[in-house]
C-alpha cells in the first residue's frame, strides 16, 4: 500500500528515528500519510494486516458516524497543501497500488457500460450458483423416488453435502482439484443413485402438497415462490447496494473473502481445515495446524469463483442472494406443502409470506456477515420437511429409506 492510517500504524523505533518521525506541522491524518511516504523512499513497504481487528471509540454519536458534516475530515485542505509542498507532484502521479476494480469512483464504475457489465456478471454468477446447487441434488433425489418439484426444491441440501464430502476426501488423498472435478464427482454419484433406483424400480413417487393440486400446478406454485423471492430480494438487497461487488467492512467479511480465495487458489476444498485461509511462506496455512469452521458455503462460493473468474466479493453477494431469494423460498414450499396438505390456497399464499419477514433472510445479509448461518437456515425448511415425512406413519418403507438417506445428508451438511 502507498500509505496507512494513523490508528494501528506500527513501525520499529529504528525506522521511526531513521526518517525523523512524524512531521509535527501536520495536524491530521495527512501527517501519517506523509510519514509513510518517507518510509517508502527508504525502500520500506506498507503492509495492511487484514487479520488484525482494531476497535476505536472516537465518535460519540454512532448514528452520525458516516456524516462528513459531523465528523472531522481525515485530510484537511491545509494538510494537503502542506503535503504537496513536501512532495511536489506526488499526488498528481496517482497511487501505484490503486486497483481500479476496487475504486468505485473510477471511470469503470462511473460508466454505464461498466455498471451494466458488473450486474450482468452478477446475474451469471447467480445462474452458475443455482446450477451447482440444484442439478446434482435433483438427480439424486429424483432417483430416490421423490416427485420432481420436491426433488428440485430440496436439491441444495444434497448438492452441498456431495461437494463438501468430495472436498474432504480429495484433500485427505492429497489431490489438488477444481470446481469442475467436484461437480463431476457430484454428478457421477447422483447419477449412480438415479440409475440404481431406476434399475431396482422406484415404486410409487413420493409427493407432498394438497392432493387436489396437479403436478403442473405444483411446478407453478414452486415457480411463484422463487419469483417472489427474487423480486423481494431485489428490493431488499440488490437495490440498496452501491454495486454487485459491494461488501461491508467487517472482520467477518475479510474471513469469508479470504476463505473463498484460499479454496480456489490452493485447489483444496476441505471444510476440516477452513481456518487456514491466509497465505504464509509455505502456502495457505501449510505451516499451521488445521481447524474446523462450517465452510460448505465457502466451498460452493469457491466453485462459483473458479467457474466465473469474477470478483470474489461479487461471488459472495451472488451466492448469498441465491440462498436467500431462491433456496430459502424453495425449501419453504416443501415444508408448507407438508404442513398444509389439505389447504392448497394456504400453500400458494405462502409464496408471499415466506420472504415477508425482516429477521430472516434479509437481516442476516447485513449482520456479520454470517454466510454459513444464512446457508444453513435457508436449507432448514427442506430438512424439517424430510424429517416430518420420515416419522409420518402413512409413508411406506421405500419412502422412509429414501428420506432417511436424504436426512442423513442434511445433517452431515456443514455450510
Please provide a written account of the structure.
The model is unreliable at 279-288 (pLDDT under 50). The protein has 415 residues and is an all-alpha fold. It folds into 2 domains: 13-98, no CATH class; 112-412, no CATH class. The chain is elongated. It has a two-stranded antiparallel sheet with strand order 1-2. α5 (112-143) crosses α11 (312-339), α6 (148-172) packs across α7 (179-200) and α14 packs antiparallel against α15 (397-412). The protein has helices at 13-18, 30-41, 77-86, 107-110, 112-143, 148-172, 179-200, 215-238, 251-266, 296-308, 312-339, 344-353, 358-362, 371-390, 397-412, and strands at residues 279-280, 283-284.
What's the SSE blueprint?
Blueprint (H helix, E strand, L loop, with lengths): L12 H6 L11 H12 L35 H10 L20 H4 L1 H32 L4 H25 L6 H22 L14 H24 L12 H16 L12 E2 L2 E2 L11 H13 L3 H28 L4 H10 L4 H5 L8 H20 L6 H16 L3
Antiparallel strand pairs: 1-2
Helix pairs in contact: 5-6, 5-7, 5-10, 5-11, 6-7, 6-10, 6-11, 6-15, 8-11, 8-12, 9-10, 10-11, 11-12, 11-14, 14-15
- Catalogue the unreliable spans: 279-288
Structural class designation: mainly alpha
Report, as a whole number of angstroms, the end-to-end distance.
34 Å
Number of domains: 2
Output the helix-strand order: HHHHHHHHHEEHHHHHH
Radius of gyration: 26 Å
What value does the average pLDDT take? 79
Helical run tally = 15
Number of strands: 2
Question: How are the strands of the biggest sheet laid out side by side?
Answer: 1-2
Amino acid at each position: 500500500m502507498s500509505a496507512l492510517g494513523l490508528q494501528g500504524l506500527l513501525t520499529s523505533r529504528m525506522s521511526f528515528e531513521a526518517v525523523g518521525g512524524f512531521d509535527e506541522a501536520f495536524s491530521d491524518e495527512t501527517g501519517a500519510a506523509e510519514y509513510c511516504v518517507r518510509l517508502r523512499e527508504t525502500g520500506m513497504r506498507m503492509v495492511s494486516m487484514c487479520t488484525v481487528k482494531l476497535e476505536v471509540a472516537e465518535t460519540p454519536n454512532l448514528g452520525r458516524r458516516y456524516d462528513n458534516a459531523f465528523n472531522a475530515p481525515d485530510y484537511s485542505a491545509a494538510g494537503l497543501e502542506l503535503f504537496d509542498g513536501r512532495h511536489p507532484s506526488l499526488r498528481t502521479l496517482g497511487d501505484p497500488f490503486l486497483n481500479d476494480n476496487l475504486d468505485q469512483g473510477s471511470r469503470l464504475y462511473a460508466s454505464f457500460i461498466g455498471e451494466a457489465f458488473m450486474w450482468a456478471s452478477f446475474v451469471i454468477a447467480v445462474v452458475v450458483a443455482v446450477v451447482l446447487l440444484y442439478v446434482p441434488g435433483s438427480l439424486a433425489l429424483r432417483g430416490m423416488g421423490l416427485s420432481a418439484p420436491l426433488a428440485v426444491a430440496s436439491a441444495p441440501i444434497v448438492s452441498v453435502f456431495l461437494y463438501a464430502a468430495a472436498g474432504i476426501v480429495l484433500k485427505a488423498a492429497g489431490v489438488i482439484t477444481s470446481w469442475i472435478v467436484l461437480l463431476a464427482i457430484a454428478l457421477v454419484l447422483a447419477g449412480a443413485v438415479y440409475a440404481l433406483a431406476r434399475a431396482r424400480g422406484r415404486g410409487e413417487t413420493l409427493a407432498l402438497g394438497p392432493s387436489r393440486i396437479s403436478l403442473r400446478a405444483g411446478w407453478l406454485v414452486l415457480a411463484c415462490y422463487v419469483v417472489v423471492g427474487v423480486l423481494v430480494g431485489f428490493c431488499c438487497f440488490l437495490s440498496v447496494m452501491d454495486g454487485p461487488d459491494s461488501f461491508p467492512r467487517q472482520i467477518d467479511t475479510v474471513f469469508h473473502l479470504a476463505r473463498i480465495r484460499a479454496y480456489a487458489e490452493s485447489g483444496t476444498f476441505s471444510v476440516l481445515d477452513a481456518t487456514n485461509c491466509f497465505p504464509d511462506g509455505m502456502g495457505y496455512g501449510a505451516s499451521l495446524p488445521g481447524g474446523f469452521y462450517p465452510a460448505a458455503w465457502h466451498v460452493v462460493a469457491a466453485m462459483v469463483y473458479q467457474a466465473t473468474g469474477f470478483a470474489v466479493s461479487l461471488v459472495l453477494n451472488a451466492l448469498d442472494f441465491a440462498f436467500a431469494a431462491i433456496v430459502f423460498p424453495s425449501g419453504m414450499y416443501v415444508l408448507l406443502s407438508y404442513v398444509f396438505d389439505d389447504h392448497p390456497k394456504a400453500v400458494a399464499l405462502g409464496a408471499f409470506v415466506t420472504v415477508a419477514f425482516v429477521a430472516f433472510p434479509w437481516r442476516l445479509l447485513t449482520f456479520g456477515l454470517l454466510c454459513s448461518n444464512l446457508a444453513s437456515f435457508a436449507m432448514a425448511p427442506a430438512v424439517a420437511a424430510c424429517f416430518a415425512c420420515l416419522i409420518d406413519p402413512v409413508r411406506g418403507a421405500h419412502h422412509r429409506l429414501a428420506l432417511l438417506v436424504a436426512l442423513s445428508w442434511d445433517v452431515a451438511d456443514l455450510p
